[in-house]
């Protein structure tokens, strides 16, 4: 695969020097190890070595992980470890149709679009136009724009999409979107929410339970990087201890408490909006 | 989506009663909560409620996670948390071509086949014919058999596949397969190994480094399940503390120590074969 | 140090065979590796090897850790990792005077009594007479009975002890005992609570804050046992993920919200009693 | 308890402003919240509130934890969570006699001296005179100097102390001190080492095993601080993931491999000295 003008590439110099660069004619890119004329990258294959003033760099095709490193940080603290787990758990794959709220900077959106492939679709809602503009730009950079329908709006009020394979909720009060998620989901489809605090876990989990979702789970992942050195290997000393919790459920014919005529005891606590 | 004869379905009764069932005419399935005639499932949509002697069950379309639960346990201790992370990190997606060693019971193979879609391919090597027969059966159950080429053989001796997008090593001595992996990989592609002990992490990481792979990482994931209960939420008391480590690297034009004419200091320790 | 009649000793055969035994004349103790006549232990020094039918055993002087293993399990899930941390954080040492609630089976009580020494004192409250009888028996076994004053009563209603160095709360609703703890503490002394759920952490922490305690902390400890084997070392696969949280604060002249004339917003939620 | 001239006190302003101060006549101490004349502290009781230009501060009697915060950082990464656990596991208490190597800045030494009380003793070895001078100064500050005998020397060559209750090894190659530790320990006494890497764990554990120690353990502690906020409680996002491992064993009459006439397979690897 050759590098073309307009491509996003990853320049890897060493562990601390990784740069996401857009290949534009006539431009150059400088680091403390030397300067690269971007024209010279065009036509090279990915994986090529580039001579710098000091040492060598390598041009990689950026993966989702690199985009994360390179600035496409989500507005909230959802990390690759969480996204990989959510995608596996959700059951989605090539061809899946997904409903997402909110879009944010588009990082989770991009990951979902990547895995549904050209035959899939992601409907991504956000209430902020500025966020969606940013996400749109990011998705274009990644060549994933065609697979995503960006929609301005509030999922909590219900959305027209239905029969979707999975719903991803990356919003402060997912418990207020559970009923809407259920209406949009196909049977046997799954809903996943990502939230930073225990209170949000409780409210989301209980809302799923009361809405008739089954197979509920709430999970936390801790990633420890290992520093490898011959005969001196040990975990990294300092790092991320917490990003958030993943709450999961699946839709069946099971009725909600309301449909069953039972009282929803949580009504009062569900009123209080965003917590983040 | 309707249930058809021959489908694998998940019968969910409650958190402790989840059963993976193959729908065969004239058969029935019994639990302590009641018996289901499988004929009656045919034609139902997924997500349907089924009346049992005691309470209700629900018929779900099995996802990769359910297959894990339902008996398709890998020969080694690679868990969904690890697989999700490896797949995200590998950069693969619909259409990718993957080299895997070893096949084992086919669980990781199935996950890879799921995410590469109909347009992708997984070449999966194992030295044991009995394992591959088992894996073949599992892949057929999942409708993923067409996407996988099962091959008897030893990746450490080199394999004919080349230009693959990623190499997954789920074997006791991945350090002995790193050179072969490099030859088969396309530039900018990635290699990932899963190993249970720190010594294996060291040997694999160092072999990657000496073979010229860059952007090396070794990671550990800890999954904590949260027990949610209104005002009494807490982590689960007992669970899995360790499955294994994920070692990652990417291929570029960077030369190996041998190609650079440098001595490989690890030669002696690389000789000792399987450790598991 | 010689073993005497009436001593509690630890018979260590191997990792899975550790027995806490009271040395009584004329009795014997049997394991699947052989039988020991307890008379023969009298007069031996601690650390002695004992011949069994199969192999050898060793007689150790039990430490607090062994007592934990040997049956003196607390009524709640407070573990050695938590106790060591609490004792270090509390600032107590030889000669300290401590107020504890509740006594339970006396395990934390015993640890506190051990570290305050002969010149210190532990006042330990519990509302259940049967628990205190059990704790009394345990403390006698350990030779720590003299250092502990066991008292039947409810700390939440206030207790006569004052000027104590630290207060340890091992009870379901420590937030209801914070004001009493403050009255009993000397200035610069510390209060520590151990609770299993996040909601209890919140209520306890907020009660400490409103009562004027400073330097507040809430901590969680995860202990991972490492399985050591030459070149195959790894963390243990399955183990304890969660016991509880430690909440800490220190008393100064800082006024409580009530003393400052401010409204205590937590009043309503503080009413609901035990949660465990 | 009144504050006297020469005391070390802790000035607590808020979570980020904690200062360890020596009370000297005629001096003052300044923060961005205001200045304190130290003369005014003399005669106050601990826990007193001090008016600052902005808000209030509180004068606390420093505990071991505060000393850790206040500059008495160990040369190596041994943290309070590790020290509390080691002390509980070691079985020591008031009156114990302890052998320690190495002294370092004296932080672990101070904790040990605190818990053995006036009737106990800590023999602490270090090969560096400058470290011991620093430790001596720290111990004097804490009023613990009398309980500690600081000795220049190399424990690996054997030391004259014997019949000690516990040996604490905070040195790069504890495996080279295991035989010396065994000679100095009383029967049923325990040895504890703190090491940062897995290789050190292996070498230390194996040396203990070969030397005849029993009841071996290797443990790792992860401390997660909880950020408490009404209805928004969550773990702290970033923190310490790793300090080191604690390796533990107990002395009995069990013979070492050498005493049993067996070959010590580890001899070769035990030669390579410090790894840190």
Write out key terms for the chains shown.
homotetramer, 276 residues, alpha/beta, Vcp-like ATPase, Chain A, domain 2, Rossmann fold, 2 domains, eight-stranded mixed sheet, four-stranded antiparallel sheet, 23% helix, disordered C terminus
Secondary structure elements and pairings:
Four copies of one chain form a homotetramer.
Chain A: E1 8-14, E2 17-22, E3 28-31, E4 34-37, E5 49-51, E6 56-60, H1 64-69, H2 80-90, E7 97-101, H3 107-116, E8 121-126, H4 129-141, E9 148-152, E10 164-169, H5 178-184, E11 185-195, H6 198-210, E12 214-227, E13 234-235, E14 238-240, E15 245-250, H7 267-270
Parallel strand pairs in A: 7-8, 7-10, 8-9, 10-11
Antiparallel strand pairs in A: 1-2, 1-6, 3-4, 5-6, 11-15, 12-13, 12-15
Describe the structure.
Four copies of one chain form a homotetramer. Chain A has 276 residues and is α/β, with parallel strands linked by helices. The first copy, chain A, folds into two domains: 8-62, Vcp-like ATPase, Chain A, domain 2; 67-270, 3-Layer(aba) Sandwich (Rossmann fold). In chain A, 23% of the residues lie in helices and 32% in strands. Chain A has seven helices and 15 strands. The first copy, chain A, has helices at residues 64-69, 80-90, 107-116, 129-141, 178-184, 198-210, 267-270; strands at 8-14, 17-22, 28-31, 34-37, 49-51, 56-60, 97-101, 121-126, 148-152, 164-169, 185-195, 214-227, 234-235, 238-240, 245-250. In chain A, strands 9-8-7-10-11-15-12-13 form an eight-stranded mixed beta sheet, sandwiched between helices. In chain A, strands 2-1-6-5 form a four-stranded antiparallel beta sheet. In chain A, α5 (178-184) links the parallel β10 (164-169) and β11 (185-195). Chain A is globular. Chains in contact: A-B, A-D, B-C, C-D. Chains A and B meet through β6, α2, α3, β11 and α6 of A and β6, α2, α3, β11 and α6 of B. β14 of chain B pairs antiparallel with β14 (238-240) of chain C.
């Amino acid at each position: 695969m050759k590098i073309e003008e307009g491509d996003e590439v990853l320049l890897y110099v060493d562990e601390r020097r990784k740069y996401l660069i857009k290949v534009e004619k006539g431009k150059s890119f400088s680091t403390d190890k030397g300067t690269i004329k971007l024209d010279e990258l065009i036509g090279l294959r990915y994986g090529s070595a580039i001579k710098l003033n000091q040492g060598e760099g390598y041009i990689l095709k950026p993966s989702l992980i690199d985009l994360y490193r390179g600035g496409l940080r989500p507005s909230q603290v959802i990390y690759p470890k969480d996204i990989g787990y959510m995608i596996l758990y959700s059951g989605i794959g090539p061809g899946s149709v997904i409903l997402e709220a909110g879009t944010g900077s588009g990082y989770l959106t991009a990951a979902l679009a990547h895995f549904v492939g050209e035959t899939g679709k992601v409907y991504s809602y956000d209430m902020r136009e500025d966020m969606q503009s940013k996400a749109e730009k990011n998705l274009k950079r990644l060549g994933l724009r065609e697979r995503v329908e960006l929609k301005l709006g509030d999922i909590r009020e219900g959305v027209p999409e239905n029969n979707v394979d999975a719903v991803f909720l990356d919003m402060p009060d997912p418990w207020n979107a559970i009923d809407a998620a259920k209406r949009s989901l196909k049977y046997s489809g799954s809903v996943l929410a990502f939230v930073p605090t225990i209170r949000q876990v409780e409210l989301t989990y209980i809302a799923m339970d009361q809405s008739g979702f089954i197979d509920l789970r709430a999970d936390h992942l801790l990633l420890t990087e290992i520093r490898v050195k011959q005969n001196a290997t040990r975990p990294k000393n300092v790092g991320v201890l917490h990003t958030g919790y993943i709450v999961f459920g699946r839709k069946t014919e099971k009725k909600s408490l309301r449909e069953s005529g039972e009282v929803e005891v949580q009504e009062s606590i569900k009123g209080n909006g965003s917590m983040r």
